[in-house]
Amino acid sequence: MTNKQSLRAVAAAVALALASGSVLAAQVPAGVKLAAKQTLIRNTGSEPETLDPAVAESVPANTITADLFEGLTSADNNGKILPGVAESWKQADATTWVFHLRKNAKWSDGRPVVADDFVYGWQRFLDPKTASPYSETYGIFILNGKEIATGKKKPSELGIKAVDKYTLEVKTPYPVLFLPALVANTQFAPAPKAVIDKYGKDWVKPGKMVSNGAYQLKDWQVNSKVVVAKNANYWDAKSVVLSQTTYLPIEDSNADVKLYESGQNDWVLNLPPGTFDKYKTQYPKEIHNGELAALRYYSFNNKDALLKDVRVRKALSMVIDRDILAKKVTADGQNPAYSVMVHGVSGADPSSYDWAKWPMAKRVDEAKKLLAQAGVKPGAKIKFTYNTNDYHKKMAIFAASEWKSKLGLNTELESLEFKVLLKKRHDGDYQIARNGWNADYNDATTFLALVECGNTQNDNQNCNPKAEELIKQGNQSLDPAKRKQLFTQAVKMIMDDYPMLPLLQYTAPRLIKSYVGGVGQNPLDRYRSKDLYIIQH
Amino acid sequence: MWSYTFRRILAAIPTLLAVITVCYLLLHMTPGGPFDGERKISEAVLANLQAKYHLDLPLWKQYLYYLNSLLHGDLGASFRYADWSVNDLVASALPVSATIGGSAILISLVIGIALGVMAALRQNSMVDYLVMFLGNIGGAFPSFILGPVLVLIFAVTLKWLPAGGWNHFDPKFMVLPIMLLVFINISTIGRVMRGSLIEVLNSNFIRTARAKGLPLRTIVLRHALKPALMPVVTLLGPLAISSITSAVVTESIFSLPGLGKLIVNGAANRDYTLVLGLVVLVTVITVVFNLLVDLAYALLDPKIRY
What we know:
The complex is a heterodimer of chains A (about 525) and B (about 300).
Chain A: H1 3-20, E1 39-43, H2 59-68, E2 73-75, E3 81-83, E4 86-93, E5 96-101, H3 115-126, H4 135-139, H5 145-149, E6 160-164, E7 167-171, H6 179-182, H7 193-199, E8 215-221, E9 225-230, E10 244-248, H8 253-261, H9 276-282, E11 287-300, H10 310-318, H11 322-330, E12 335-336, H12 360-373, E13 381-387, H13 390-407, E14 410-416, H14 418-427, E15 432-438, H15 445-448, H16 465-476, H17 480-495, E16 500-511, E17 516-517, E18 533-534
Parallel strand pairs in A: 1-10, 13-14, 13-15
Antiparallel strand pairs in A: 2-3, 4-5, 5-7, 6-7, 8-9, 9-10, 11-15, 11-16, 12-16, 17-18
Helix pairs in contact in A: 10-12, 16-17
Chain B: H1 2-29, H2 43-52, H3 59-71, H4 86-121, H5 126-140, H6 143-157, H7 175-201, H8 204-211, H9 216-228, H10 230-245, H11 248-253, H12 259-268, H13 272-300
Helix pairs in contact in B: 1-13, 4-5, 4-7, 4-10, 4-13, 5-7, 6-7, 7-9, 7-10, 10-13, 12-13
């Protein structure tokens, strides 16, 4: 396919997506009677570190800011990309996108949302003075974004331009086919300059914040709750059913369930470990367990004297029975994983190992042979580092027992406080360490970051130059199918090096009251209030 | 008395400074920084963050910067709660902890002292055994067991009270946490009161009072109760401090936005300014409560003069 043909294919796909997906919010099925009171209480797991979309980093902060702010596009509760403030867009050439903004988009104070609000918002997001933790992660996809985030260029040099009041032009450093999905993240939301100038850091406080999303900030009590209420000035306000959402910062999953059972919470974030089956029986109509674009894995330090031998890494990976781990050890509905790429992520397919289907006895025989070839004898010691947490401890004990009973290796378990583990892992000061990753956006590149040469997120210290070349080619490709093929091939090549030990694909085992409608299934686990509604009960 | 109080306050300043300095050094020596997360931040972005919070300055400069801010009543910006200053966070959490902790102490004192007196006056009787048994239940069960039991009974099963949370000092959200703290406190207060009163009742001046034919009620209320309260008063300082500042478990069980939660999150997140701010607060509260206890001694015991 030529570049022109590819562009046409992309444009057609975007058009099709727009045609098939209604931009309307909560899709209340015919016959469903809505409750008179449309309010929801849900747990987000911890206090948001900020409600400033440019600085937001955590899941709670991103969840709440997605209600308060809307970018050029937005993602519905099934993860589908829909028009946001932009009603249409097109890829003008390989590295240029043009977004056409709707004229009826307004801030909560009634002012129109215009292209300059996006230019200011994006420049502010990447400005080193804002110090957004995501500036470089997302900045690499916008022309000069990385250079601005790292202080090498000025924010005014960012590849975004207001062509007129309602047209935006965005330049990327290379073809970024998933840009419409990327800019749904609220870090790319517009920002109300006048309000920020007036209030400074306090602009995000109740009574001061001006936002352009379906909701506006009503109340915020630190470590107690954040309340958002319907924004009457939102361009699609007529489709917004839920009038108010209260976000709770409950960290303890047992307390979360108790609040649910006492009727104070409609949405448990995560069930306590090992209770999935119990609650599935107890609340069959309320149990949810959607698969997430997230991976539990163990990092191998590929530069370690013992683990630099791929045979050792392979042997250690082969003998871990992921089925038993998922069903008996963690027992919370998660799925076995054999690749850095998980199911449901766009842009690449997960790879798997041939041995994954072998009987365990055959896997053990093969693993023993590999260790013998590598000169590792039974009784050899390995050190496994994890952070102090019962869940991780259970998994660590299981892994150690697999390595001991099947290969005769002795594991020294090292339990560290979370920040200490992170420091050691990032510094490469470990042998095998617990690790995990949640996708930042729905594209293969978010997972490739974990295994790319020299990537900041690569704790394994591995590098495969041949795979790197395929990734580079994929990033330059304008053809989504070709890109996917290249990335999938790269993933397979990298995973054959056994740089890490993939274990489980995360799911979100939770309880949601049966009267909450519009929940859907979202691999990024982002559910906006705009799509939800309360059924009469 | 005033001069004593003034001297005690002055003496607290070097204590406070020493506590801040040690805590400051320990925090910076602890591995893992405030911006270490599962997703590693690149050096350049980390530098942006460090510059924003003055962490790019040499340690001694940061320390002087912090002390200077402190002298101006500014506890600094929180690293974790980016939109709030530590002053904001303390101002929102302290009233919650003080309300829960203070109410629990007052109720515990009334019930604990009453139970202790009852048990002491009927030593080795069924009443004594019953009171001590009930008191011991509160003391024997850890709060992380007793708390969920209360939630199960009053929130989940009976649905009389909220299982947790907080809503602008709405009293119904306070009942269960206060009940839990009272259960825990009354066993200690009751036992100390009982032992102390028994000891006082066996002392010579009470024996003299009995010999003079004074009724028991008069003996207890006018002569025995005041000296018997001394050990309870001694307990009050640490009890009040722990109720207000260290109610970590209680706040976790009932998801309360108090100081305990801030301390735990501050330490886990390496939120240096937040931890230091809370250390300053705890030190000041400790000094004040110890001073109040010492002053209360003088009121209760005529032999003590400052």
